[in-house]
Specification:
about 280 residues; alpha/beta; 2-enoyl-CoA Hydratase, Chain A, domain 1; Lyase 2-enoyl-coa Hydratase, Chain  A, domain 2; six-stranded mixed sheet; three-stranded parallel sheet; 10 helices; disordered N terminus
Length: about 280
């Protein structure tokens, strides 16, 4: 999936790329190229299988935080390179004893800052799992609003293999996605999860042949980038916050959100298009 330009910002372990999307022009009916509003965060440290080290964790925090505040970004894509998504934390420099606790605490905290930024971003997020996603990579894969998995990729919880507990929000999201019993099975037995099983569990949105992977990620990102970004963000927040509310409280929050959505330009455009029997052209405002 080629980007339209180079890095917006120089990172050691990441590439930030902007990509234009194609969409039909309402006036002419022809397909036109839109602004570079799809932004890809590419984990690019394949010499160590995109393993999460302190530098990459800090860069993820910086990238996700900056992009969450970038109004020109209509969809984010998180992916790896060269058939590797993220093989987990880079434990190569650790000692394997209690002296590692401070470093692991810092690494986990940086990962958690990045995960929070991804989950809290108003902008839709597509995660493209193009290879092994293990440990921290497993946790990052769960962040997506849409998760596209190549049919030659696999998910691995992996924390127990080195005697560690899960991080990256995996112990929060996993039981909510698959149920407590299945979550314990995944974490404790730690069998590799193939794409079809991952789809069946609800961990990923779909599995596609490796030859179609890039095109499918691009298509999904383009669809999301064409939508009402503010309404998408509010809907995401409503769903996440529903875990802390009862039904009455959740419906009260829905009332506030739907009323607030009327203040967006996208509502005006959507309303006009609906009564004109046309496809809306949203602008993300």
């Amino acid at each position: 999936m080629a980007a339209t330009d180079g890095n917006d910002t120089e990172f050691e372990n990441l590439r930030i790329e902007r990509e234009a999307r194609s969409a039909p022009d309402r006036a002419s009916g022809e397909t036109a190229s839109r602004e570079d509003d799809i932004v890809r965060i590419v984990m690019d440290s394949t010499s160590n299988f995109n393993s999460l080290n302190p530098t990459m964790a800090t860069e993820l925090v910086r990238a996700t935080t900056d992009l969450a505040e970038d109004d020109s970004a209509r969809c984010l894509v998180l992916c790896g390179t060269d058939e590797v998504f993220c093989a987990g934390a880079d434990l190569g420099g650790f000692d394997g004893d209690a002296s590692d606790a401070p470093r692991l605490r810092r690494l986990a905290s940086s990962l958690h800052d990045a995960v929070l930024a991804l989950h809290q971003a108003e902008t839709p997020l597509v995660v493209g799992v193009n290879g092994v996603a293990a440990g921290a990579g497993f946790s990052l894969a769960l962040c997506g609003d849409a998760v596209i998995m190549s049919d030659d990729a696999q998910l691995e919880y992996a924390y127990g293999r080195v005697g560690l507990t899960g991080d990256g929000g995996s112990t929060f999201w996993l039981p909510r996605m698959v149920g407590l019993r299945r979550a314990r099975e995944i974490a404790l037995l730690d069998e590799p999860i193939d794409p079809d099983y991952a789809v069946g569990l609800g961990l990923v949105t779909e599995s596609v042949p490796a030859s179609e992977f890039d095109a499918r990620v691009r298509e999904t990102a383009s669809r999301l980038a064409s939508g009402p970004t503010k309404a998408f963000g509010a809907t995401k927040r409503l769903m996440i916050e529903s875990f802390d509310r009862g039904l009455a409280g959740q419906m009260a929050a829905e009332t506030d959100a739907i009323a607030g959505a009327t203040r967006t330009e996208d509502y005006e455009r959507g309303h006009e298009a609906f009564f004109s029997d046309e496809e809306p052209e949203f602008v993300g405002r």
